[in-house]
Amino acid sequence: MAAITTRVTSSASKRVAGIAAKVQIQVGDLAQVRREPCIVVRVPSPLDQFYVSLTVSGHALRHAARDVGFVATGWSKQMSAKAISAGEVAMTTATPTTTAKSSNSKTTVIAAESSELLATAQIPPTILTHLARFDAYADRLLYEHGERFSQAYIEFFAADSDNPAIVVSVEDVARWVFKSTENNCPSPAELYATHTFLSKNIKMFAPLSETNSSYSPIDSNPRFLLRGKSEVDEISWIEQQMRGVRIGDELKSFLNKAVTLIERANASPVVETSMFGVKETVTDLAIDNLDDIAFTETDLRFINIIKGAAFKPYPNPYIEYVNRGILSRLPFGYSKKPSRKSTNNGPTAFSRGLDAIRLLKDLGVLTPWENTAILAAKSNGGFLDGIPGHDLSDWADSAQTDANIWGDRLLVQETMVESALQETPLEELPTSKLQIPITLSKSISETINQTADPLLRAVKKNVIFPSENMSDDFIDEKLANSSASTLSRRDFENIPVYVIDSPTAQELDDGISIEHTISGETWLHVHIADPTARIPSTHPLAALAQLRGTSMYLPERHYPMIPDSLSNTIFNLGKTQYALTFSTRVGGDGDLIDYKISPSIVRNVKILHYRDVNRVLDWSTVFGAKKSTSEFEAGFSDMPWVEKLMREIRDSDAKKAPSASITQPEISKDLIELQKLAYKHMQWRVSHGGFASDQPNFNVKVTPYPLAITPNFPTRPFEYEQQQRQPLVLFDSNAASHLEPASNMVSECMIMANRVAAKFCAEMDIPTVYRGQEPLKEASGDVVKAALACIDPVSGVMPFLAFRSIVPYFSAASSSIKPISHFALGINVGEGFGSGYMKVTSPLRRYKDMMMHWLIKERLLKEEGRVSRSLFTLENVFRISERISDIEKRSEKVSSASSKFWALEWIQRREILWRSGAPQEVVDFGIVAHDEKLADLGVGMPGLAVGPRGPVIWNDMYRGHVEWGALQHTWEVSSAKRCARPTYKFVVQRISDIFVTGILGDLGGVEARIHAINGTSFEFGDIVTCVVDTIDPAAGILIMAVEINKIF
Q1: pTM value?
Q2: Residues contacting residue 257 through CB under 8 Å, at least 6 positions apart
Q3: Among 13, 66, 585, 667, which is 20 to 30 Å from 110 by CA?
Q4: Mind listing the pLDDT tens digit for each residue in 886-901?
Q5: Please, are residues 446 and 456 in contact by the beta-carbon 8 Å criterion?
Q6: How far is residue 1046's CA from residue 1048's CA, in Å, rounded to a whole number?
Q7: Is 605 helix (H, G, I), strand (E, B) or coil?
Q8: Cα separation of 795 and 683, whole Å?
Q9: Does residue 437 have a cis peptide bond before it, meaning omega lies within 30 degrees of 0?
Q10: With contact defined as beta carbons under 8 Å apart, do 533 and 450 qualify?
C-alpha cells in the first residue's frame, strides 16, 4: 500500500490532518463510547484499569480508551457553568434513585450507583439533561447538513486527487461542512456530528486510531483515511453481488468452489497419531484432486474482501458484506448468525473476522499454521511499509531486491580485494535502481521527481541524506577502506574476544574482552561489528537501511535491515576482523573511570554459547540462585519460573559437564574476571537507584526456518501433501535473561559500552539522541516505597509482584538531544561518569546505531584534522531517530504477537496430543529434534494435522458465542485412554467481575485468563493450578479452567 500523505485544508487555518495531539481522558469529559455520548465519571487506577462513563439514560459503562472515538475535554465544566431555568428542568432527589427530566420531558431514572459516581466526580445530575440535549442537537445537525456531509468525500478527494492516500481530521471536515472561519472554530456538537458521520460511513472513511491499551491518550482531533476510489468501487461491486435474495453469477460461482474446498477440509483427517505408536485413522476423502480448481480474477476479488473482514480493524465494511453475502451461505458452522450483544464468553465484536480467517485456511489461501500478525498489522494504522513479501507497500519488494544486488556487489568487491580469483565479474551483476553515491543533490532530486518508480519515491519521501557537501571520496577512502584509511584501527592481535550467543544465532554482532596493561590497568573492551567499514553513509545500502529502519525477528522468519548475505559473512564478528571498540575501566566503587573508542581489528575470536558459559560462571549473584534445594522445596520462591529454572539448572549441571573449550584455564579465567567487572558495575547502578525486574519470558522457534511466505495472490488452493509435515514448534520457558549469569554479564557490558558512547558524544558535541526515563510518578500510600524496598541487594532484581504493583506509576521512556537521566538503569546525569545513555551496540539491525557509528568515526577524523563538516545535522539526527523509533515500536508489537501465536500453537498441539491418547512422555517432553543445534531450544511439539484444517479447542459455551468449530471432536479418545492431563501454574494479575487475567508462570509468562467461578475467590499474586479450557492461536485466545481448586 502506498505511504499515507496528509491533506492541508484550503481554509485559512491550514491545519495538517496528519499531526494530531494526544489527550488523556479525564473526569467530566464528554466521550463517544461505542458510538454513544457519555460523561466520564471515573478514570483508571492501579487497581482498576478501566474508565466508567454514564450514558444519556444514566447507565454506567465500563470501557477502555480504545472504545472512545471522540472526546470533548472539560465539557461538563462548561455546561455546569451555564444557568438552567427552573422551568426547563425539574430535578428531584430521592433514595435509592435520582430522577431527571430530559429535554423532551420524559423522566430519566438514575440508578443509585450512577448517582454515587456523579457525586464522587463532583458533577451535578443535571449534566445528563445537557447530554440529552447535546445528543439531540448533534442529530439535528446531521439531518440539516446531510447534503453537504454527503459531498465531503468528493470534495476532499478531488482537492488531493494526486495523493495515493489522503488523511483528513474531524476538524478538517467540520470546518468545510459548517463553513467555519479561522476565528470561528467548530463547536463540540459540530465536531461530534462530524465524527458520527465519518464513523458511520466506513465505506469511504477508515478510522485511524493507535490507542491499544485500556489507559492511554487518544487523538484530540481524530483522523480518517479516505479510501481510494478503487476500494470504494470494489465495495460497491460486492454490494451489487449480494443485493437481494438472488446473488450475482460471479458470487454464485465462487460459493460453489468454496463449498467444494470446505467439504474437502472437513473430510480430511485431523490428527496423525503414527508418531506416537497409535494406528492412524483412515478417512475416505470425498474430494482428493484439486487440479481442476483454480482461482480466477473474480475469485481473487472475493478473497481480497474476505481478507478485509479478517484483518482490517473494526469497524470495517467488509465484515458485514462477508457475513451477509458469503459466510451465511456456507456449510459447517459458517451459516450461524453472530450475536450482536457483547458477552462474557467471547470476542463477539470480531467473531466473524475469526470466521473469515478460518475460511481463508479452508480455501487454501492461508496455510493451516499461518501466523496472521503481519497481515493484521497491515491494516492497524501505521504500516510496516518496509517488510517485503506481504504487499504492505508498493516498494518493499523492490527494496529487498536492490539491497540484495548491492550486497552481492560488496561480496564480489571483497573477493577482489582478498583474492585475484572471483567467480562473478562486477560488471556482470544485476543493476540497481539506486546508484552510488546517494545524496540529495539537485540532479538526483529532479531524477526522482520525474520517475514513477515507487522505490525511488519512497527513498525521496522518507530518507534523510547526508550533507551534499560531504565528499563521497572521503567516505570511501577514509572510512570504508580500512587498509587505506588514515583513521587508524587498533589491532587487538591475540587478545581473546568472546562472542557469546545462542547456538542458532547467525548475526553475531558483539564480543567482549579483557586486557591487563603493562602499567597495571585493567580494561574491559566491547567490540561491535562494524558495517560502516564497508558501507559509507552515501551508499545505496545506507539509504535502504534507513528506509527500513530496523530488522524484525519472528519465530518463523526474519526481515533483515541489511542483507543476510552480508550480516552472516563479512559483517559477522565471527567471520570478519573489523569492529568498533568501546573500552572502559571500572573503578573501585563500580563506576566507569576512563574510556576509549577506536575502530579496531580483532583476530582471536572465540564463539561461545550462553549455557556453556553459564557452567563456569558464579551463580551466587543471580536472583533466586542463592537458596538451597530444601529452601526451594519449602516454597521460598513465590514465582514458578524462578523455581522451575533453578531446578532444571541444577539437574543439567549434574548431568552435563562444560565443553572442553570453555574449561581451558585462560578462557574460564577471562570469563570469570569479566563477570566480576560487570557485576561491580551493576552493583554501582543499583546503589544509584537502578534495578531489574523479575519478569518471566519464553522463546519459541519454528523449524524448518524460515517458513515460506504465503502468496498474496494465489492462483490455486494450497494443497497439503500427505507426506508433508506441519512445522515443528520448539518452546523454551526459561528465557528470562536475568536468571542466568552469562546473559547478565553480556547485557551489563553492553550497558557500559552505551554509556561510553554517550560520554564521548556529549564531550565532543556530536549530534545525538539520548535515551532516558523519568523517575516514578507520585503514588498515594507506600506502594512505591514498599516495592523499592523489596529489591534484592545481591542481584538488583525487584520481585515480580512488587514490580507489577508499581507499573502504573512508571514514566514512559523518553528521548532528548541533550543527556538525560535513566531512572530504571540508575544512570543519573551529573553523577560520576554519567553523561546519559544511548544505544550503539546493534548496527546490523538498527539504523540508528549504524548512523551513530558514522558520526563517531567522523568525529575521530576531525580530531586528526581530516574533515571539518558534519554528515548529519542535529535536527536531521532527531528526525531520523523519531521516524525509526516509530518503526521499532510497530516491529516489536508484531514480533510479540507472533511469539504469542506460536506459543499458543505449541500449547494447543500439546493439548491435542493429550486428548488423542498420546503417551505421557510425548505430552510432557514432546519429540526430540534431530538437529543438534535445536536440542537446547526447548520442548518440540510436532504438527498434528495432515489436512488443510487443524483442530481448534473450544469449550461448548464459548463456541456458542464465537460460532467457530465443529460441535464434536471425532479424534478424541475416552478419558480412560488418556495420560495425566497437562497442568499449568496461573499467576493472577488482574481481577474483574467477568474474568481473571494473568500469566502461566511455569510457561514463560504466556498471557491467559480464567472466567470468574462462583464460590472461588482470587487475589492479586495468587498461583492457581489450571488446565486448558479454550484455545485458538489465530484469535490469540487462551482461557484456563481451575481443575484443582488450590490457591497458593
Answers
A1: 0.84
A2: 293, 299
A3: 66
A4: 899 989 989 999 999 9
A5: no
A6: 7
A7: strand
A8: 8
A9: yes
A10: no
